[in-house]
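User: As part of a screening pipeline, I want to sanity-check one entry by hand. Below is the sequence and the SMILES for nicotinamide-adenine-dinucleotide. Please return the complex as structure tokens so I can compare it with the automated output.
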Amino acid sequence: MNYAGRFDGRCAIVTGGASGLGKAVAKRIVAEGGKAVLWDVNADALEAAKAETGATDVYALDVSDQAQVEAAAAAANAALGKIDILVNSAGITGATAPVHEFPLDSWKRVIDINLNGLFYCCRAVVPFLIANGYGRIANLASVAGKEGNPNASAYSASKAGVIGLTKSLGKELAEKGVIANALTPATFESPILAQLPQSQVDYMRSKIPMGRLGEVDESAAMVCFMVSEECSFTTASTFDTSGGRTTF
Ligand SMILES: NC(=O)c1ccc[n+]([C@@H]2O[C@H](COP(=O)([O-])OP(=O)(O)OC[C@H]3O[C@@H](n4cnc5c(N)ncnc54)[C@H](O)[C@@H]3O)[C@@H](O)[C@H]2O)c1
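Assistant: Here is the complex for your manual check:
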């Protein structure tokens, strides 16, 4: 499916744009008339993703480094002339372990990237969206943030934090033309699954009523709606792509 012209004249920043969902969203934004810059910590994958998506520019950065994020936001605004869309897709799973055995370094890294990093990106980019008088933000949370997955406490806590942050942010921006929502996918096929033991993936698949994992393009389609003009009366909320797993 392709909605030709849906993103005509729109300029987007996509974090985690070198892989998986971020790359799929960027590809679609460009294919439907927009411009995209990709932010990712994986410099090699970024160059390949630039060619694959047709992105205008790429920035190799770590979203958990606030100074790098601030600098990249200013650079993207200068290069694109404005920013209309922010898609926060950068993320990691962290360790698979129960809370009482969870490695401290993994806990801190997951919170630092998935929650603090997403906060830094919103904090840096929102002033440009407000100045623009129009904006759309899609924050990648997870069903884990609503339900909690066993042996994934850092990830679940970080994604619950993303949902809470998005609820605050959407309400703050509600009268400024800027809409912010979160997406809570169940497990979908992407390179992030290589960070998990197969037993954890099997557990998550078993929780999905449709009996299958999602496809990356199914969540990309939802994100593209969330960051389009058509998403105009929903903010501070969560969208779902979970094959029936979460019904709230
Ligand atoms: N795949 C799933 O099953 C699933 C389910 C629910 C939510 N999510 C969320 O969707 C988002 C995208 O996941 P994906 O499946 O596309 O994963 P992915 O691993 O394919 O892509 C994530 C990207 O984030 C980048 N990244 C990681 N740490 C970074 C950092 N510190 N700074 C900048 N970039 C960094 C990685 O290099 C990678 O390119 C994540 O936030 C993930 O938690 C994924």
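Points to compare against the pipeline: The pocket of nicotinamide-adenine-dinucleotide is lined by residues 16, 18-22, 40-42, 45, 62-64, 89-92, 113, 117, 140, 142, 185, 187-188, 190-192 (CB under 6 Å). The chain has a mean pLDDT of 97.
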